[in-house]
């Protein structure tokens, strides 16, 4: 059995894409996924599955979501071990000790475009934000030096630069999801 976290894109944000977490949990259970739980209202779903192909599983979840709720939402699916690697590889560790709310990790739903590195470099040079693509190339760490609320660097602008959809989670949320995953392992 593999433990996964599904990060849904743009759920319950600004009154759009409204889905209750109990309904989202039931949808995952209908796919015969086990030990399904959700964390906060933004579409974080933890579960276990015998399915080892994360990409195939993500597409199954997206298809069922469209069927159940009548609109599409992309899913960035990560194994628990992948999330742990993402947390350990944080290039802004010193900064997050002082202001964890200023770090957002974007989980990419697909492989970034070939020109993404150059586009991200241009975006990073334009403002106080710092950007770092993970070694795996599937996560983008965004350090909002002056706070996310004051930044002009939006997820949409980052998606354009990456050439693929992504969904962001702040550092505090990721650490809490990690704690929930650790509790599952302990029993």
Please tell me about this protein's structure.
The protein has 187 residues and is of the alpha+beta class. It has two domains: 2-83 and 176-186, SP0830-like domains (Alpha-Beta Plaits, 2-Layer Sandwich); 88-171, 2-Layer Sandwich (Alpha-Beta Plaits), CATH 3.30.70. Helices cover 41% and strands 24% of the residues. It is built from seven helices and eight strands, in the order βαββαβααβαββαβα. The chain has a four-stranded antiparallel beta sheet with strand order 2-3-1-4. A four-stranded antiparallel beta sheet has the order 6-7-5-8. β6 and β7 form a beta hairpin. α3 (80-88) crosses α7. The mean pLDDT is 93.
Brief overview:
This protein has 187 residues and is α+β, with helices and mostly antiparallel strands. The chain is built from seven helices and eight strands; from the N terminus they run E-H-E-E-H-E-H-H-E-H-E-E-H-E-H.
N-to-C span: 15 Å
Described by its quaternary structure, the protein is single chain
CATH fold name of the largest domain? Alpha-Beta Plaits
Topology as a string of helices (H) and strands (E):
EHEEHEHHEHEEHEH
Count of discrete structural domains: 2
Poorly predicted tracts of residues: none
The DSSP helix count reads 7
Measured as a percent range, the helix fraction is: 40-55%
Strand content bin? 15-25%
CATH class of the largest domain: Alpha Beta
Name of the CATH architecture of the largest domain: 2-Layer Sandwich
Task: Identify the notable features of this structure and list them briefly.
alpha+beta, four-stranded antiparallel sheet, 24% strand, globular
């Amino acid at each position: 059995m593999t433990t996964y976290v599904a990060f849904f894109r743009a759920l319950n944000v600004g009154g759009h894409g409204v889905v209750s977490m109990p309904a989202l949990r039931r949808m995952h259970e209908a796919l015969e996924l086990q030990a399904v739980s959700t964390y906060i209202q933004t579409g974080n779903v933890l579960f276990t599955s015998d399915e080892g192909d994360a990409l195939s599983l993500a597409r199954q979840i997206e298809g069922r979501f469209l069927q159940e709720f009548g609109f599409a939402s992309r899913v960035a699916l990560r194994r628990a071990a992948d999330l742990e690697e993402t947390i350990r590889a944080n290039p802004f560790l010193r900064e997050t000790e002082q202001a964890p709310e200023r770090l957002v990790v974007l989980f990419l739903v697909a492989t970034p475009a070939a020109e993404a590195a150059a586009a991200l470099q241009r975006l990073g040079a334009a403002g106080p934000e710092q950007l770092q693509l993970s070694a795996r190339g599937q996560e983008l760490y965004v350090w909002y030096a002056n706070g996310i609320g004051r930044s002009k660097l939006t997820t949409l602008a980052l998606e354009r630069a990456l050439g693929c959809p992504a969904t962001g989670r702040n550092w505090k949320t990721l650490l809490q999801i990690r704690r929930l995953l650790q509790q599952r392992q302990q029993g």
